[in-house]
């Protein structure tokens, strides 16, 4: 019984052997598929690549900027407190000038308004804070637009690619499954690329928003500490 099964297995393997004279079909690369997909698909792929480069630049630049703005300087407010308590406003302002951070610029604006009513000082500090938040959020709306537009552009490329594929098949005399699969494959590439870019932009956008929120919290905490310091009895 075992010998019979072994013989059948050898026969099956012999039947599966490829004919050495049979031509080998070479697989096409992704670039070859794109080059054969038509001019419109190439343009859409180029737009998606451009969106990817823009999104990567915005994320990298904003990540570095926001991280620097939120860098911890635990001793800054303590030094400001010490200078104000001794009445040395010049040194306090000099400290703010040499410290490159949103908190330092807000405190410096408050120091410039010393002697005016507290509500005026608070309003001036708040205005500077709003400006700093606007600077931190620069480019985030563009990144959010890329996150939403890239999948839609990719889907548009798929629709136009499918239309082109079916149009070519309608004019072809012999329609084979390989021809149909090739047209659909090249059309779906733009959707995959658009989704990939959109997901990366969406994740990057939310990561940057979370960082901005942490910096804003730190700014509000320092502002409250500064205003409390001004109201302490001399």
Automatic annotation (TrEMBL):
Residues 100-220 form the MotA/TolQ/ExbB proton channel domain. The chain crosses the membrane at residues 38-59, 143-167, 187-209. It comes from the Bacteria. GO terms for biological process: protein import. It is a multi-pass membrane protein. Keywords: Cell membrane, Membrane, Protein transport, Transmembrane, Transmembrane helix, Transport. Its main location: membrane. InterPro entries: ExbB/TolQ_transport, MotA_ExbB_proton_chnl. It is found in: Cell membrane; Membrane. One of its GO terms (cellular component) is plasma membrane. Belongs to the exbB/tolQ family. PANTHER family: PROTEIN TOLQ, TOLQ-RELATED. This is Biopolymer transporter ExbB.
């Amino acid at each position: 019984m075992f010998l019979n099964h072994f013989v059948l297995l050898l026969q099956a393997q012999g039947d599966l052997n490829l004919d050495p004279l049979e031509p080998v079909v070479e697989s096409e690369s992704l670039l070859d598929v794109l080059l054969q997909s038509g001019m419109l698909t190439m343009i859409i792929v180029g737009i998606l690549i451009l969106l990817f480069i823009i999104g990567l630049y915005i994320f990298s630049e904003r990540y570095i900027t926001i991280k620097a703005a939120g860098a911890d300087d635990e001793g800054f407010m303590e030094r400001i407190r010490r200078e104000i308590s001794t009445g040395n406003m010049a040194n306090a302002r000099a400290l703010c000038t040499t410290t490159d951070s949103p908190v330092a610029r807000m405190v410096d604006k408050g120091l410039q308004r010393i002697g005016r009513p507290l509500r005026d000082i608070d309003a001036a500090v708040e205005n500077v804070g709003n400006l700093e938040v606007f600077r931190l959020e620069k480019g985030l709306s563009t990144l959010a637009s890329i996150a939403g537009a890239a999948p839609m552009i990719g889907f548009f490329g798929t629709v136009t690619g499918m239309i082109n594929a079916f149009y070519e098949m309608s004019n072809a005399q012999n329609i084979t499954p390989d021809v149909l699969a090739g047209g659909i494959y090249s059309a779906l590439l733009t959707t995959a690329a658009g989704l990939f870019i959109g997901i990366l932009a969406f994740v990057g956008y939310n990561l940057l928003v979370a960082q901005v929120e942490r910096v804003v919290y730190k700014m509000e905490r320092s502002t409250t500490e500064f205003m409390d310091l001004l109201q302490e009895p001399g």
